[in-house]
Design goal:
The protein has 59 residues and is mainly beta. The protein is built from one helix and three strands. Strands 2-1-3 form a three-stranded antiparallel sheet. β1 and β2 form a beta hairpin.
Length: 59
């Protein structure tokens, strides 16, 4: 499978991410992400991994 964010065919895994839009509303998306994109997306304070988080990359 390829990464939903960058299109790379590296090791990917399915995650559910919660996006918080300025505290007004949230949206959950199921995405297939490589480790680099998961790390990059979760570095944003408005994004949280809510499923698959037991496989989050260790810094």
């Amino acid at each position: 499978m390829t990464c939903s964010n960058c299109g790379d065919g590296a090791l990917t895994r399915e995650y559910t991410l919660r996006f918080d839009f300025d505290g007004q509303s949230t949206k959950e998306l199921d995405l297939t992400l490589c480790t680099d994109c998961l790390r990059e997306l979760c570095s944003d304070s408005s994004v949280e991994a809510v499923d698959g988080s037991d496989h989050l990359p260790v810094e």
